[in-house]
Amino acid sequence: MRPFWAATANAHLEQSSPLTLGAGGEAFLNISSPWVRDHLSRTLQITRDISPKPPISLDLPASTAQRQRMFPLRDHNPSGRTPYVVYLLMAANILGYLWYSTSFPTDRSMALFYATFAAVPREIMMEEAPLTLLTSMFIHGGIMHLAGNMLFLWIFGDNMEDEMGHLPFLLFYLVSGVGATLVHVMSAPMSNVPLVGASGAIAGVMGGYLLMFPKARVDILIILIIFFRIIPIPAFIMLGLWLAMQFFGGLNADPNLGGVAYWAHAGGFFIGLALTVPLWLKRGGPRYWSRTHGQPPHPETTYSASRIPRVARNLPRRPSGPWGK
């Protein structure tokens, strides 16, 4: 991830090209839209105000990533239809990351990009940048941030799209993401730290998944130094532990300082769960759980055990010598 330096910048706003290189090779967004022109002028002031190396909210700090030794790989819950919306969202996030991570060669230009399209709580509270509630959901702070979010979307998103339908799931995803951002804004209303990432929207997907499939099996990869093991556990345990981590993290972190936006995660989770309640009631509510025992209402996927080469213990016997050796 590029460091997010605070710097002043001179944006060339009168040219028609969307990207212009400055004298030092900097890339500047040059969009003639009055809204963007006004927004960029506020962005330049924000980059003057923030500290030398402010982190980006929703990005995973290196120290936290190093301590994380358990993460989900897959579930045993097959979907009955092709998850076109999940594919579309993954493509938008991945292609978008490839574009902006290579289009802005300097820290100053990258800082301007984040401050323009990420969600800055102070701006949202002042009703100055409403579109960033959406654009921030498709921006990530680094390759591992992107990879982790896409993994969770891949595991849990297809089943929710299968249950809801394509367009309702897309609306559900976007509303969960916007709601999660607003929860973060309420936790740090005057913060100038940009908020980026799809984590809040995906947390909403996880909340809906917990309500619909609480006992679906999820394979967890546990890594302890040189010990690797895949363990299937019920979704309510995996998601419950994840939610507890967000609460404990939120209680011990200052949302004004950046890092992981724990309250956006927790807020998105409960928003997604609440939005799924009508579907759950339509399926029968508690009777649906009684009928399915919390399991998916269809046969689960089975995975064959991975074959790891082993050294044969019973080696062929060599011919005995005259002394039996």
Largest beta-sheet characterization = 3 strands, antiparallel
Rg from C-alpha positions? 24 Å
Q: How would the global form be characterised?
A: globular
Helical run tally: 12
Summed over residues and divided by their number, the pLDDT gives a mean of 77
Give, in order, the helices and strands.
EEHHEHHHHHHHEEHHH
Please state the structural category.
mainly alpha
Helix content percent band: 40-55%
Strand order of the biggest β-sheet: 3-4-5
Content of β-strand: 5-15%
Total strands = 5
Q: Quote the distance from N terminus to C terminus.
A: 63 Å
**Low-pLDDT regions:** 1-37, 43-54, 59-67, 306-325
Question: How would you characterize this protein structure?
Answer:
The protein is mainly alpha-helical and about 325 residues long. Helices cover about 50% and strands about 10% of the residues. The protein has twelve helices and five strands. The protein has a three-stranded antiparallel β-sheet with strand order 3-4-5. A two-stranded antiparallel ribbon has the order 1-2. Helix 3 packs antiparallel against helix 7 and helix 8 crosses helix 9. The N terminus and C terminus are likely disordered.
